[in-house]
Amino acid sequence: MIGETSMGAALVCLGALAWLLGGRHHGIRRARLLLAGGGEVPPGPPAWDQTLGELRRLRDRLGAEWWTLAAGLLLGLLGASLIPVVAGAAGVPVLRRARLARQARRGRELRADAVIALCGAFAGEVRAGRQPGEALLRAARDSGGLGEAQAAVVAAARFGGDVSGALAAAARQPGAEGLLGLAACWRVAVDQGAGLAAGLDRLDAALRAERDQRADLHAQLAGARATTVLLAALPALGLLLGSAMGAEPLHVLLHTGAGLGCLAIGSAFEAAGLWWAVRIVRGAGAL
């Protein structure tokens, strides 16, 4: 009876996942029909669309890390134990931290690319014969490389303020460190009359070379990251294989003394191995 209940709960969860994924394709089909002008778009069931919209908004607001709790609930139902639920709940803050760190890293990379675009556009405007202040205004408007400090830099350039100081302040944003070089170029050009375009070209080339080196390093580390993910997924694959062979690994792990001991030791080794692998990859990426 318990096995039938667990299997039914698993089927319900899988059906809900298929429902969420199917709703996305249904929305895409409706949008294509509408944009193509192929006649009247057949309306979907109101309750269906409203429920899907609420579930998608809930998913976007909570984040992907809450899937670990859902997986823990599913395993808890299948194994008739609270241990997977507790483990899934404990994994939520860890995965949230990893997701936020990934988003911050992506933001730094985008800001660094915007700074490079700003330097290139600034150099082009100066070579076109525009004054440095006007050239900086146009380049900042087109590239968006100044980020949150754009208003201060634009105001300094427009009203004759301390442009180099505003650029140095803008360089405190993560990923915008290249603006320090831009501030130095501006200071040298204003104080000593040096060629601003030549300095901007050299700065642009240096920033591009640094970006290419960083991208090459990330590409070389992609294999190590994939290996880490594969090794982390091997225990789950072992559980699936054991279940397919009828060995009932969840029952052994969650309801026997030897299984609980193996689960505790294996989890400790798994966490230590993941921590060590992530530390090695991050250390190599920081070189």
TrEMBL record:
Sorted alphabetically, which keywords does the UniProt record give? Cell membrane, Membrane, Transmembrane, Transmembrane helix
Query: According to its record, what are the GO cellular component terms?
Result: plasma membrane
Q: Which InterPro entries match?
A: T2SS_GspF_dom
Topology in the lipid bilayer is annotated as: Multi-pass membrane protein
List, for all copies, the residue spans of the domain called Type II secretion system protein GspF. 121-240
- Which Pfam families does this chain map to? T2SSF (PF00482)
Transmembrane portions of the chain: 66-95, 228-247, 253-278
The answer on whether this UniProt entry bears the keyword Nucleotide-binding reads no
Report the locations given in the UniProt record. Answer: Cell membrane
Q: Which domain of life is it from?
A: Bacteria
Protein's recorded name: Membrane protein
The lineage, from the top, is: Bacteria, Bacillati, Actinomycetota, Actinomycetes, Kitasatosporales
